[in-house]
Amino acid sequence: MSGCAINLPTPRYPQASLIEPSRSLDANSSNEDQQTSVNTSAATEKQTTEQASGEPLQTRSELEQWSLEHNSEIQRLGLVFEAATAKTRYVDSLPDPKIGANFFGRPIETATGSQRGSISLSQMIPWVETLDAKQQLATLQALAAKADYRSARLQILSQVRVGWFRLYLIEQQFSVTKNNQQTLQSLIDVANSLIAAERGSSRDVLLGTLELTKLEERLTRLKQQRTSQIASLNRLMNRSLDAKIISPEKIAVSIPAQSQADLVEIALQSQPEIQAARLRNQAKKWGVTVAQLSRRPDVTVMASYFLTDDNRAPNPSLKVGEDPWFIGLQVSVPIWDKKYDALEEEAKYVYDASTLSIETLTDRTTAVIVQLLAEIGRADETAILYKDTIIPQAQQTLETDQSAYANGEVEFDRLTRDFRSLLMLQLGYHQAVADRAIAVAELQRVVGETTPLLD
Fold this sequence. Notes:
The chain has two domains: about 55-95 and about 125-295 and about 335-445, Outer membrane efflux proteins (OEP); about 95-125 and about 305-335, no CATH class. Helix 3 runs antiparallel to helix 5 and helix 5 runs antiparallel to helix 6 (about 200-235). Helices cover about 65% and strands about 10% of the residues. It has helices at about 20-30, 40-55, 60-70, 70-85, 130-195, 200-235, 260-270, 270-295, 335-405, 410-445, and strands spanning about 100-110, 115-125, 300-310, 325-330.
């Protein structure tokens, strides 16, 4: 019944060639990544209990762990993977047998007696090659679903880290603005003392007060941004939007030591999004095989048993009342070549499109790595330049001009320019630090979770 031999495609990746795919997937699921097995009721109960506690999250690792345990998108993809794994356990099974019964309202009269009814049983016997192809297709799709799950974990982790770094930036900008508010107030006090000594002008106090008002407006805006950023982080962690998160006071990141070529190589091997695309490409290759095998006729074995009455006169040449039975064979006739040609052509086009999508994805990944490395380098150099050179010079300039103003040698306008310049440089320094950390977090997502780029 197996039919003629056919050349089946062999997957290029070892995990795709599975003799017992369902057991292999179960082992991988339980040993390598147990968190993909989701108990919905238990997870919901745990989430409700932990949210009710209302304990604030203080560190980045706490935020990351919470998001991995409670993010709804990660849980959804975990369930999708479980569903795909379950499919591998039945896709190569035989179809259910069919049993039927017929009862004749008007008996069929035969020489051996009246036939009152019949019982039939049938079983469709699929081709072994077709079952194997469907099993491989389902296995590869399940592995791709697992890669999607890992990709979602990376994506959520990256979003949490980026949100954490942006919260740091807001906190530092708030602190810098607050400190400069005190510096500006000291300048206004100097202007007031000069007025008292009849050496200054009330215009200077008005200018200083105007700058102070601008700082108050900036502080208000930063408070709103902090509230919004905390809400965004809580949404990623599936918590109440107003749940408390302690803002970070400092961040620490490691600049990747690997070269650009090394990072690209790591990404092409370990990035789950690329892995998922390759697995789906192999699945679509098996889809071509399934389409080719659909031309084979379906074979059905059947048997029937007829219930016959013993209502005829004895006859030595006939077995009166004996129940007849038979065994039969049905074969479908695939005569519609256009339909099967179209099925095969569709599968081939889908496979070719999938192959091109892998090339597009790898090219895009390479380009993103190059861009992120350039951004990391720029932000790192900018932060160092601000910290070691530009900000100290700006502070020295402000201090010099402040002394000169007290002696009546410069105008207050010059002090306000120095003050604004120093404020913007300090804000720019923290912006560069945050940009560097955000670029590193994005690079870790693009390269893959196994690469230790962050502290």
